[in-house]
Amino acid sequence: MTVLGAAWHWLADPAHWQGTDGIGYRLLQHLVLTVVCLVVSCVIALPVALVLGHLGRGGALAVNISNVGRAVPTFAVLVLLLLTPIGTWGEGPTVVALVLFAVPPLLTNAYVGMREVDRSVVRAARGMGMTGRQMLFRVELPLALPLVLNGVRIAAVQLVATATLAALAGGGGLGRIITAGFNLASTPQVVAGAVLVAGFALLVEGVFEAVERLAPSRTGSSR
Amino acid sequence: MTAPPDDCLARNEWICGEYLRTRRHLLLDAVLQHLQLTAVSVLIGLAVALPLALLARRWGLAAGPVLAVTTILYTIPSLAMFSLLLPLYGLSGALVVAGLVLYSLTLLVRNILAGLRGVPEETRQAARGMGYGPVRLLLTVELPLALPAAMAGLRIATVSAVSLVTVGAIVGFGGLGNLIYAGMNTWFKAQVLTASVLCVLIAVAADLLLLGVQRLLTPWAGARQG
Question: Which domains does chain A have, with CATH numbers?
Fold first, then answer.
């Protein structure tokens, strides 16, 4: 367990927490990247998925995009983007790749959630004279919320993981501590970085879990 | 001094036939390493997942912890997973395989368990009534009926493994990922694009192959299963 001890020493050293290569800055970078990309992906994917789900069209498309997304290596996309003109925009390649990978789970989960709303409830709402917009926002969306949120959670965890890979392609974030450790041939630093990254990912998963638990019982029971 | 050749390699174009021709062996080696790492990890994953799933179904109490642990492992980013295993395996192919096995476990355990749980109770009772013992029941009734769900998990695990192998480039065992990593550092566009496309092709081919195997193994499921 000497490696873990050395990793702990590395983490405990205050010098490693300061400056633009420090843990503090990398954590902040990782958090900002994740949040910005999650918001952008939600803004792109959710309206499309909700409208398609409401209309009941494009289901095959939503599911297929998700399957194709899994076959494309994140790392390859990052490097490809880095070598295109986008590569000159600083964090541009990272943001574009992250959004590309967060959109499919959001799209698929939100679409499936909308389609799994009990059709008799939708018919009842129509019978009550609700307009399409009212049905979407007051009946379908509230009932689909657990699955929509599940998609957001999958996307968030995927973003944290992909933001780590950005370091391989020269981007920022916590992964940088790991890649720097590899370059210095410092196993303690590599392990310390890995512990930080894994902890961050588990924390995000935990936060979403807690939010889902605390959500109103109407949405909490049918998870 | 001779003038440098004016071909697509010298011009550093994305698509380059000259690259394919001159680096054929390099690409072939990378593809082989990629296939090897993927296949070994998924097979070990399957060998570990099956007993875990059977255990989780046999003792209901074990299901919670087994699913929780595999899900937590799945949450850990791949770069961190490979790095955490570094002290145990060093810079080796085994390190990449170990990481990938841990990832495939979640998908496989979940799907095998779902498949086993989906076997109708009446079917089980009918088999018992015909005098089937527990082992025969498992091998000839339950496992075949659980196969479609298990195969769905296997397909996802395989496709994900193909794409995750590339991250193994950080320790030098990333199959096509090695070429992508090297290509990035030298700004070699043809190499990055060719290796990336090959990765996707391997993933698609593996998926179709498994789909074919599934059709052969479960002829009763007909064409509905996709």
Answer: 3-222 (1.10.3720.10)
